[in-house]
Every structure is written in C-alpha cells, then in structure tokens.
Write a structure and sequence with these properties.
alpha/beta; 14 strands; 8-stranded mixed β-sheet; 6-stranded mixed β-sheet; globular; single chain; 2 domains
Length: 336
C-alpha cells in the first residue's frame, strides 16, 4: 500500500499510518525500533531498499528524511507512506522544503515509535562531524555513518573518531567484521610471536585503516598499510619468526589463508551489500568500545603522520634560502 500526502503535517501522517494498519489488519506492536535515514534524493533509493531488506530481520518504522530546496522561502512537507509491499515494517519518506529542512527533528519526533530504540543512519557522503551532536543524532541510541561514501574518506574517519560518543559506529568498521573473525580464528591456534604486519587495500580505504589499527592495538605491534588495486581489502600479512600468516583475497569473494607448516585453506570472504551491513548494526544497540579503540588509534597515527609531514615541509622551506645562497656562490666561483 502506498499513500502520497502533499503539503501535509505530522498529524495527518500519523492518521494515515493508523488507517493503513487498520485496513491491512497489521498492528504496530511488532515494531522493534525506529530507523531514521538522513539522505538526499539521489541516494534515497538504495538506502530505503537496504533498510527494507534489513527490516525483514528487524521489523521497524523507517523514517527517511530528504531535504529539498532548503534555501526556499516557504516551508512544505510531503510524505510518501509504504506499507506491506516488501516487508513487515513501515516506511515513510519525508521530503522537506524551505526552512523546514533545517528543523527536521521537529517533524521526526512525533513519528517515532513509542518505547522503542532509535537508530539514525547517514548513508551518503554528508556526514556530521559529531553525529551525537546532530539534532537527529541526539534522538538515537545508535548512530551509523559511512566514511567510505565521503569525498575525503580518511579525513572524515579521523573527524568521526575525534567526535566519538558511545553509540557511534561506521560502516567502514562493519565491513571488516568478517576479516576480524577470520584473523581471530587463525590466531586462536598456536603460533610464534608476531613481530609486525601489514594490510593491503585500495587507496584511501577507511576499512583497511581501521583493520590495521585494530591489529596494532590488539597485538601490540606496528601494522603498516600497503596499496593494492582492490577491490576493498585484498590481504593481511602477520610476520612471525617461523614465517608469515597471510590472508589473501584478490577477487573480493574467496580468501586464501596460509600458515607456516600447514596447507593453504580457502575461505568464503565476500564483500557484503549495504543491507547486510545495516542488519548487523541493528543487532546491537550498545556502545562499541572496540570500534572506538581502533578509530582512536587511527586518528592518533594520522595526526602524527600529518605532523611529521608538516615538520618536513617547514624544514624544507627553512633550508631553501641557504640552498639558493650556496647555489649563487658556486655560480660566482665558476664565473671567476
């Protein structure tokens, strides 16, 4: 069932939801949470589709906030209600025009499911610096971002780490769950002391940076980054005195686990779609301290690298006049 409401209000949307449930004979008590999606018109289709698929595992009310023409002088709210077509949940697309787009929380609050948790998700590249301080983020117990969708991926991840609050997470971290599980299982077996490691992935991969930071924190060794052609993360190498423990995934589907003195093993390690990532995040609403540790370590390492690069640039600038003077002196000597 689809219901379109133009120039509407939250009261009319609530009435339409109630009427639709009565017509379909479906009570709202089965909803376990409210999912708020903050996106734009170009990204809303994929985001709503992923949320609809995740709602099969987590029945929820999906409120999709879409800002349209925020610079307009007149405010207007259009709503599109979808129920019963592809899943057990309810989906409401809220298109806000004019100054109303700057106060989306005032529209969303009356539509929240009573006595259920709230999750806010920013699927696109417009990620707030501190999700917990965002008006829609303050409504949520869990706040999900995706640094990979941002233009400056590593800078965005660093800013998210600096503004971290309990309940924050990022799809860049969710994407490495399978890698972390495989590596943890491999290290549960007897092995020599690990002295270092590296993670290979495509350039500017937030997931690879978080995986390297997690390994560094947990193993207490330096884990470097190597650039590959992708897709995504292509390999992890852990160095030991007896040989390397290596996981290679060149095709984004099947990985090969190699250990010293043991035959190679093939392991399914496919790149997961957005719906699976979202469903995983909706399974837990408690703070993710492991993500916090990894993100904090990455931000610290990135800040140190930037400071060293800035110091090298300052040294180069300071020594430039001396090099020029020496060059002029050599030219005079050659002329004499």
């Amino acid at each position: 069932m689809n219901i379109d409401l133009t120039g509407t209000s939250t009261r009319k949307i609530q009435d339409a939801l109630t009427q639709a449930r009565h017509l379909m004979g479906g009570p709202a008590v089965g909803m376990v949470l409210t999912l708020i999606i903050v996106t734009d018109e170009s990204a809303q289709y994929d985001a709503v589709r992923a949320a609809t698929e995740a709602a099969r595992e987590h029945p929820c009310r999906v409120l999709t906030v879409i800002s349209r023409d925020a610079r307009g002088s007149s405010s207007r709210l259009d709503a599109e209600i979808r129920m019963g077509e592809t899943g057990p949940g309810e989906t409401v697309l809220l298109r806000m025009y004019g100054p109303l787009a700057e106060h989306a929380d005032s529209v969303v609050v009356p539509l929240l499911m009573p006595d259920t948790p709230v999750v806010t998700w920013w699927p696109g590249g417009k990620v707030p610096k501190a999700p917990a301080q965002d008006p829609l983020g303050r409504l949520a117990a869990r706040r999900v971002t995706d640094a990979y969708a941002a233009r400056d991926r590593l800078g965005t991840l660093s800013r998210l780490a600096e503004g971290y609050q309990p309940g924050d997470t990022d799809f860049s971290w969710t994407r490495v769950t399978s890698w972390r599980s495989l590596l943890a299982a491999a290290l549960d077996q007897d092995h020599a002391e690990i002295t270092g490691g590296s993670v290979s992935a495509e350039p500017d991969s937030p997931s690879a940076e978080l995986l390297a930071a997690w390994l560094a924190v947990r193993l207490g060794v330096k884990v470097g980054r190597e650039v590959s052609d992708g897709p995504g993360i292509t390999g992890v190498t852990l160095r030991t005195g007896e040989g390397d423990i290596v996981v290679l995934r060149p095709d984004g589907r099947v990985a090969t686990l190699s250990r010293p003195g043991q035959p190679d093993r093939q392991v399914a390690l496919h790149r997961r779609p957005m719906s699976e990532l979202l469903a995983e995040e909706l399974r837990r609403l408690d703070p993710d301290e492991v993500y916090q540790d990894a993100a904090t370590r990455f931000a610290k390492d990135l800040a140190g690298e930037n400071a060293r690069e800035e110091s090298r640039e300052q040294e180069a600038q300071a020594s430039a006049p001396a090099r020029k003077a020496a060059s002029r002196s050599r030219k005079k000597e050659d002329g004499s």
